[in-house]
Amino acid sequence: MFVAIENTPRPYAWGSTTAIAELQGREPSGEPEAELWLGAHPGSPSRIFGGSGVGFPDLATWIAHEPDSAGLSSGRLPFLLKLLAAETPLSLQAHPSPEQAEAGFARENAAGVPLDAPHRNYKDAFHKPELVVALSDTYDALCGFRPVADAVAEIDALIDVAEGNGQGLAAAELRGLRERLEGDDAEVLRSVIEYLLGSEVSALVSAVTDVAASAPLTPAVDTVRLLAEHYAGDPGIVVSLFVNRVTLRRGEALYLPAGNIHAYLHGFGVELMAASDNVLRGGLTPKHVDVAELLTVLNFEPVPVPYLEPEHVGDGVELFAPDVPDFELYRMDVHDDDASIDIQKAAIAVVTRGEVDVTGAQGAATMTAGQAMYVTPDETALTVSGDGEVFVATSRQ
């Protein structure tokens, strides 16, 4: 069965005012439209079109009352698909492992913290690994700690600039930071991040911001300038020196597992994650920040930029499949030839370019850019024809 779904974009302040509206071919609302949630997460379940024959207002209600007809005998859709449009940087954050999420959720329940409390960290008992595929020409992000030596080189260069400009106080602050960077990478990163996020470091933040304003442009300097523009005085500005900066091109992807420190900076993309809303924030946001809890989930080992390379599984078909059971993502790009995939699991499809016909074992639908469908497992396979691009999310198990 093909079930047409829709939702209202989340109006987070960092969202683009145009990207999602332009994809859907409608007039912008005039307000930020940050995320379009396509799934059954209770925070914003997708609405079901009245003519679908399902008889329920949204996916969450349908799955809760008739899990078998929705093709989910477990009673839960394990993934959440989003369109994410960032005009300005998001918070510096990480997500918990399954064990950390279960323990944190139980702990806050036992403490009587309401589920909708703004200071609640764990909204559910599930982990939240995620991937993002760029739809815009470029998509900028911070993701994962980089080797300390790379940060040292950046800081040494800033010291040279400060001394050359006669910024003696700023140079002294930077040398003080530099002195903290001796030893094993993971131990140094744990110590310095705890210091930066848990101490009074306003003078250091000002020093980094002021010196970067006249420093030669590097990706790290560019990040400092961008973050200072939107979050002046936030210690996350200095933390960014220790995190990989990446610019994706359209169609490129990142995978962010549990514990990976990250912040999306700017761009429009398709995001797929485990169906959870557990976010531990350390800065760059007016939302709740819990440094102590963030430090318990962070992975302090330096990592390369966590690109996720797709597997080519057929003509016009790429598969993004990280090693988690909750989700995988197909990208189907068609022009003159059809593209097909076998699924046999509940899925959600969203069109990100053009107009296509989607055909399964029993049903069919014509979809245009910005439209989405929930697909039940009895369709078993999907064939896409026309001229367009479709992303299909499903679980791996």
Automatic annotation (TrEMBL):
It catalyses: D-mannose 6-phosphate = D-fructose 6-phosphate. GO terms for cellular component: cytosol. It is an enzyme of class 5 (isomerase). CDD domains: cupin_PMI_type_I_N (cd07011). Residues 322-393 form the Mannose-6-phosphate isomerase cupin domain. Pfam families: MPI_cupin_dom, PMI_typeI_cat. GO terms for biological process: carbohydrate metabolic process; GDP-mannose biosynthetic process. Keywords: Isomerase, Metal-binding, Zinc. Zn(2+) binds at Q93, H95, E130, H262. Its EC number is 5.3.1.8. One of its GO terms (molecular function) is mannose-6-phosphate isomerase activity. The active site is at R281. Residues 5-148 form the Phosphomannose isomerase type I catalytic domain. The keyword Cytoplasm does not apply. Binds 1 zinc ion per subunit. Coiled coil: none annotated. NCBIfam families: manA. This is mannose-6-phosphate isomerase.
